[in-house]
Amino acid sequence: MIACSRVLVFALYCLCLPPAVMADTPPLADATTTRIAMARDKVLPVVVSILVVGEEFRQGESSLSLSSGSGTVVSAQGHVATNAHVTQNGRSFRVIFADGRELPAKLVGTDTLTDLAVLQVQPPTPETFAFAEFADKLDLQAGDTVLAMGAPWGLSNSMSAGVVNNPHRLLVSLFDDESDYEDSLGDDEPTGRFYAWIQHDASIAPGNSGGPLVDLNGRIVGVNTRGMIVGGDLAFAIPAPDAAAVVRELIRSGKVTRVSFGFRLRSLKGTGFDDGVLVSAIERGSAPEQAGLRAGDRILAINGEAVHAALPVDVPALQKKIAELPVGSNVVLQVDRNGKALEIKLLAKTPPLDRGKERGLIAFGISGLKVSADIVHRRNLVAATGVLVTGVRPGGPAATARPEISPGDVITQVSGVPIARPIDLTAALAKHPEALVLAVETDGQQRLSVLRPEYEDQGHNPVPELPKSWTGVEVQPFTASLAHDAGLASAGFRIARIYPGSPLAAAGAKVGDLLVALDGEPLKPANDISASAFDQRVRDISPDTNARFDAIRAGQPLSFKLRLAAAPVDASGLGTLAETRLRAQLRELGFYDRVAAQLPDDARGVFIEGVEAGGAAGLAHLRRGDVVTSLDGRPVAAPKDLAAALIAVLANPTGRPIPIQVMRGSQTRILYLERYWLLADSKDLP
């Protein structure tokens, strides 16, 4: 019924249009199309894709990942405006222009509270860039046509059209408590605290983040930041005036300085009051609480200027007004508490840094960050400075220290020298390369721990095992009941695969033969799933021993006489190397690798066991399962050969990309390593 009524209204609207309007419809459509084309040609050429190599930490080890976002060139000097969550944890950045040109970029600054960041393109020689401009005021109305530009799913040069649904949207539904709005925006980075969003329905997807929302005049009216996966094409953009102010400040100083008082505001909706703004929450022990401010107070004026927030959408502007008060200034709040007028005096201070940047410390086997005043307060630490351990690599130096170091510990000294930042730990290695005595705060206790650092790439050479007998086949177990149902003559183990050059193959065995006895003793499977009974019977016989298998082929009995061989070494017994320059796990090429890839018995190379998407190997498109046979023309037969070839190549840090020859499936391929991928991200960071 609802759908029908909508159709009816639409039909009546069309029928009621006066003839003049009906006749003018095609020219109006043509005019809109022309304006869309004009806006596209003005802005889309300066919209860029951003390739980000990001660093994450798991169990004390860094992992490089690859992600992408969008941005817009906003200055002749090559500044690119984008989202802070696009650049988050980024270690290196590449900007891809609409014409396909790719250039490195540096991070100028981020402002997580507004989810905005600025990069600057680094061309090989100075140049002047074309750029787009922000709208200086928000004059959008519901129904205005807007264009979303960017790189959805990493696909560059994309544009979609839609209309503004609401130019002042707060993400609080009819079912939400507006007091919880800020918490819903993020625990550590509550973006959207200082503005209401532009809601529109121009289609965006992951990868569009940071791209521009453009009006038909070719102005940037917003920065696309959020979208909805379900519920239709709902997208949300940061309004241009707010974004422009933050971007300008980031370009000027690399950061945005604000004040914070430790209280939250909510509108008067549902309170029965007519003026002011309500204090909805206050941090215990904060300066406003000590000055007498309480949850439930109504702020009527700030420094004599009246403030008012009738609805939730009015609150962000007030929070921005407070945050932009001059640092160090005296602030006077005129407050109403149950009809009584009060005056609260505060000093405008910048908030303490919540978290430093997490760093990986390979030699220690940990990740950590600088202890801030807020961390000291939240964790009730005794130490005022130090390095908070955020992760520990299993089996690494911290895990094997005496006593072990755990996540949550704070390292305060190294061999008597105070530690304030992760870089201080790295500096201590030069003075104490063999063993370090760490002062560690753990659950309020002050302890000492002895740690032995590890250096260079970590290789693993397994201890040789005693040889085990091998027939060179894989078998499927058939119990008596399964054999009966399958029409086989007897219980036993059916040959499912024969490896080339195996003892049973040399004796004449074929796939499909049913092995029923070994040296006169019946072969009886324990179940229909596991072939372990067969493997154990073979391993009980020493290698280089004669053996006889009785078998059935097409209902006819036969036997195979052979000499058992030593089993090839499986993957667990092969040497490995964690190559930090490539960010890849390397392994010796084994017998089973050659069989799986259908390689000749004498094929040599290095098996790739794993790659990090954002590391040099991942960026060169190496994959797990690839077999590297040469690097820059140098043959590689073992992990150490590949490491040596990399060292030789990096002796000349300039020049063309480095070719890598790999065997992948039935193909031999050439891939290319960029030198800057290898030279970056291979050392501990401060």
Written description of the protein model:
The structure is a single chain. By secondary structure, the chain is of the alpha+beta class. Among the domains are: 2-33, no CATH class; 263-347, Roll (Pdz3 Domain); 359-455, PDZ domain (Pdz3 Domain, Roll); 469-566, Pdz3 Domain, CATH 2.30.42.10; 572-679, Pdz3 Domain, CATH 2.30.42.60. Helices cover 20% and strands 35% of the residues. The longest helix has 25 residues, at 19-43. Mean pLDDT is 86; it is low at 1-25 and 681-686.
Defining key terms:
41 strands; Pdz3 Domain; elongated; seven-stranded antiparallel sheet; eight-stranded antiparallel sheet; alpha+beta
User: Which class best fits the helix and strand makeup?
Assistant: alpha+beta
**Share of residues in helices:** 10-25%
By CATH, the topology of the domain at 572-679 is: Pdz3 Domain
Please count the beta strands (DSSP E, at least 2 residues each).
41
Tell me about the largest β-sheet.
8 strands, antiparallel
Principal-axes geometry comes out as elongated
Strand content: 25-35%
| Amino- and carboxy-terminal Cα gap | 65 Å
Short description:
This protein has 686 residues and is of the alpha+beta class.
Secondary-structure topology with pairs:
Layout: H1 2-16, H2 19-43, E1 47-58, E2 61-73, E3 79-82, H3 84-87, E4 90-96, E5 102-111, E6 116-121, E7 145-150, E8 158-169, H4 181-184, E9 197-200, E10 212-214, E11 220-227, E12 235-239, H5 240-253, E13 263-266, E14 277-282, H6 287-291, E15 298-302, E16 305-306, H7 315-323, E17 330-337, E18 340-347, E19 359-361, E20 366-370, H8 373-379, E21 387-392, E22 410-414, E23 417-418, H9 422-431, E24 436-442, E25 445-451, E26 458-460, E27 469-470, E28 473-478, H10 480-486, E29 492-498, H11 503-506, E30 514-518, E31 521-522, H12 532-539, E32 546-553, E33 556-563, E34 565-566, E35 576-579, E36 584-588, H13 591-596, E37 606-611, H14 616-619, E38 627-631, E39 634-635, H15 639-650, E40 658-664, E41 667-673, H16 675-679
Antiparallel strand pairs: 1-2, 1-4, 2-3, 3-6, 4-5, 5-6, 7-8, 7-10, 8-9, 9-12, 10-11, 11-12, 13-14, 14-15, 15-16, 15-17, 17-18, 19-20, 20-21, 21-22, 22-23, 22-24, 24-25, 26-35, 27-34, 28-29, 29-30, 30-31, 30-32, 32-33, 35-36, 36-37, 37-38, 38-39, 38-40, 40-41
